[in-house]
Amino acid sequence: MGKNITEEIEKLKKERNAIILAHYYQPDEIQEIADYVGDSYYLSEIARDSVENIIVFCGVKFMGESAKILSPNKTILMPSLDSGCAMADMINEGEIIEFKNKYKDAYTVCYINSSATVKAHCDVSVTSSSALDILNSIENKQILFLPDRNLGEYIAENFKEKEFILWDGCCKYHNNIKINEIYELKEKYPNSKILVHPECQKQIRDIADYIGSTAGIINYATNNDYKDYIIATEEGILYELKKKNPDKNFYIPGGSISCVDMKKTTLNNLYDTLLNMKNEVILDESVSKNALKCLENMHSLAK
Known about the structure:
Mean pLDDT: 96
CATH superfamily of the largest domain: NadA-like
CATH class of the largest domain: Alpha Beta
Distance between the termini: 46 Å
Number of helices: 15
CATH architecture of the largest domain: 3-Layer(aba) Sandwich
Strand content: 15-25%
Strand order of the largest sheet: 2-1-3-4
Number of domains: 3
Helix content: 40-55%
Shape: globular
CATH topology of the largest domain: Rossmann fold
């Protein structure tokens, strides 16, 4: 390629009237070129409200699906259409139907980390940043929560008056964080603060100074004067943390927590996607229509 690939991407983006969105877990160079970088909730709002007709979503499949559900008339492209989410794959349409049939009076809440076909059978979707606000708006006492048991436990701890029935799913990256790895860092950096994503196990959450979404973790570290932070989430978050806080130190338990699917996006496949208008997210119309209410409730109840 004659010119720098980032220049070519910028040129194509203007020609196509496209916008590039990237999750905090994406590779550094993808976050650098994106028009907007954020967590799942923020990006879903940007995708819904953007004036551009083409959205290039640098993330995993359920994110692209959610953007398509909220904006059915827009073209949603993904540089890596096979970027899945192991957690989202832990429940399918047949399983959620069976789950709901066992608890017919329950209100069904799904984490946004779920497929469009699963969302189509849920009352509302939540993100880690919006979950507490949304549950605070739900009057039902019995809640089915899926697919992440760790996030579900965290929410349930804040709503003792409700009965939570949790699906047994998890994010393998957050779930596998070891408490001894955090203790080792804490011993080395005794004045550090421990910032934890709610997808982590309870024993990890219980030693946290702060529990929150990727955006919440970034805001906490940015708005506090501590020098050292132990970051219990995917390491892609370090790009934004270091950019906003160049004089602070951030440490990942075990040295590395990297989601393989989030790292499938590259500058080359981003360029190829824009050049050839490929990897479009296509959803069954009935699935998209049924899932829309679930996501619309997410935005309305989070206010």
